[in-house]
Design brief:
Blueprint lengths: L1 H5 L3 H27 L5 H57 L4 H22 L6 H15 L6 H27 L6 H19 L5 H24 L12 H4 L1 H15 L6
Helix pairs in contact: 2-7, 2-8, 3-4, 3-6, 3-7, 3-8, 3-10, 4-5, 5-6, 7-8
Length: 270
């Protein structure tokens, strides 16, 4: 049930969440007093409203905390993708100026980036990783490690390339780790049950058209918060999940680097 929510298009998810919220608010406003046959005095209604404000404050703080937590995970995953693409681009440039002996590592880096997009990304959406991509990364390490710099300049470039390669491994681990981040189930339970109880509590002591309108408005507001939580929770999953855009652009960037390097050094064999 929860997985199917992540796979819904945004407009369908919006209708479902806000429609359910409106139904809960209107249903409680109309039916809860009739169901329990409540007839509070004015003093009891005032006291209930004061207590409801305290309860709604705690629920609001909890929802805000969950929203900040989910947004930080989402931005962290987005940043991991962008940094991984940036480091791969830097590594390719280092390997390019290293000379002809780094041609094979450059080809392996291209294959590795392509494998992330084609082989690993569908698995990352479910928190997995690709063995084929892992194998290409190991092969890339082997190709770079077998390079034998012969000058001080090449040694400096080689050291920087190794540093970028280690950074690339770290960022891949970060991306995979963020693909499985999610709001803890207990936080979902507390937020949903607390929100429903708050709406029910508010509907128990006031029975006017204005009160019904206000309760429905509060229900929609809470529904918008849950819509946001579901949309950014688990950053890679579903049609709204993060895509490999920055990594997809790398192939074109690699081609441009090769083209400009070839113009500056026409004597070098591609």
């Amino acid at each position: 049930m929860v997985s199917s929510l992540f796979n819904l298009p945004l407009w369908q998810l919006t209708i479902l969440i806000l429609g359910s919220s409106l139904l809960v608010g209107f249903g409680f406003s109309v039916g809860i007093r009739r169901l329990f046959r409540l007839n509070p005095t004015a003093q009891e209604a005032d006291l209930a409203i004061d207590l409801m404000q305290v309860a709604s404050t705690y629920i609001g703080i909890l929802l805000a905390f969950a929203g900040v937590l989910a947004w930080q995970d989402y931005k962290g995953a987005q940043l991991a993708i962008e940094q991984e693409a940036a480091v791969a681009s830097q590594l390719y440039r280092d390997l390019t100026i290293c000379g002809a002996q780094c041609d094979e590592p450059r080809h392996e880096l291209r294959a590795y980036v392509r494998s992330i997009i084609v082989d690993e990304w569908p698995l990352v959406r479910d928190g997995g990783r690709s063995d084929q991509t892992e194998a290409l990364l190991i092969k890339l390490f082997d190709r770079v490690g077998s390079t034998d710099p012969s000058t001080a300049r090449q040694s400096a470039i080689y050291a920087e390339a190794l540093s970028q390669l280690n950074r690339l491994v770290e960022l891949r681990r970060n991306r995979i780790a963020t693909s499985s981040t999610t709001i803890p189930p207990v936080l979902w339970v507390v937020a949903i049950v607390g929100s429903v109880l708050t709406i029910a509590y508010a509907a128990s002591f006031v029975s006017t058209r204005y009160a019904t309108l206000m309760i429905c408005g509060i229900s929609l507001t809470i529904g918008l918060m849950f819509l946001f939580l579901i949309s950014v929770n688990n950053p890679f999953r579903g049609p709204r999940g993060l895509g490999p855009g920055p990594l997809t652009q790398l192939q074109a960037i690699f081609d441009k680097v090769d083209t400009f390097h070839g113009r500056l050094h026409p004597d070098e064999k591609p």
